[in-house]
Every structure is written in C-alpha cells, then in structure tokens.
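Case 172 in the screening queue. Each case pairs one protein sequence with one candidate compound; here the compound is MU-OXO-diiron. For every case the pipeline is the same: read the inputs, emit a complex structure as tokens, and attach any notable structural observations.

Predict complex for case 172.
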Amino acid sequence: MISKRLEDAINAQINAEMWSAYLYLSMSAYCQDQGYSGMANWFFIQFKEEQDHAQIFYNYLISRGGRVLLKAIDAVDTEWASPLAAFEATYAHEQHVTALINNLMTIAIEEKDYAAQSRLQWFIDEQVEEEENAVDLINKLRMLDGNGYGLYVLDQELAARVYTQASPLAQA
Ligand code: FEO
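Case 172 output:
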C-alpha cells in the first residue's frame, strides 16, 4: 500500500504529465500552422510520450492500491515567436518536470517506499533523455540561424521521428 503523501504527489504528477501532453500538442499545432510539418510530427510524438508517462503513473498508483483522482488540466500557450522559441520553452519545461520527478523520488526515499523508488528511477533516466533532446534541437536551430534550406532539412529529419510506446507500458 502506498502512503497518502506519495499518492497525492503521484496524482499531481499525472496532472503534470497530462499538462505536458497538452503543451506539446499545442506546439505541434503551432508548427503545423507555420508550415513545419516535420517539427509538428516531433511535437505530436512528444504529446503521445507524455500521455504514456501519465498512464505509467496512473497504472502504478492503481497497482499499489492508490486512488487515482483526475483534476482539471490548465490551459497552455498557443503561440511562440518561432520554432526555436518553442524548443526553448520545451527545454525549460522539461527542467521543471525533472525537478518534479526528483521531488517524487525524495518523497519515496523519505517514506522508505523502495518499490516506488524503483519505478521513479525509470523517470529519472527518461528526463536525462528529454532534456538532451531539447538541447540538441535548440543547438541545431541556433546553428541554422534562420537559414531556409537548413530549416527545411531539419524539418525533414524531424518528420522521420516515430512513436514507440514507453517501455514500462510495453512490458505491462
Ligand atoms: Fe513526462 Fe517530458 O517528461
């Protein structure tokens, strides 16, 4: 059985992951509107991955005898100054999510919940990748500095990103 403190924190994290999904879907719509269909694809897959993250926490809370409580999802931004600005906002958001996951791990340690620590380790590793991906794309976009052909090539590259279900769900 999971502690009430961790149950509340995981419920808050389910909401945060759903908000992340909504944010990236909004960025996908923005990129599509700007004509960057490859970037729109990248953000759409990011949207699906965030839904996976919410589902992993959802499944986990149930498996530990907790009660899932879904709350309202706050509105997200709909406009960015440029694709680069959207990726910069992505990096800032992922840094925030990393802090949330680290806080969950701190609670799990304080509660001596070793099972939760094991599940949270997957998210800690995942956040390294999330931040790295955002930084990589920010660096590429800064390097291009608005070069049209370069943006076209990068957009083509991002069009090739494919969705794969997060491993804790695939293993379930
Ligand atoms: Fe659910 Fe992008 O971290």
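Case 172 observations:
- The chain has a mean pLDDT of 97.
- The pocket of MU-OXO-diiron is lined by residues 17, 20, 50, 53, 94, 97, 130 (CB under 6 Å).
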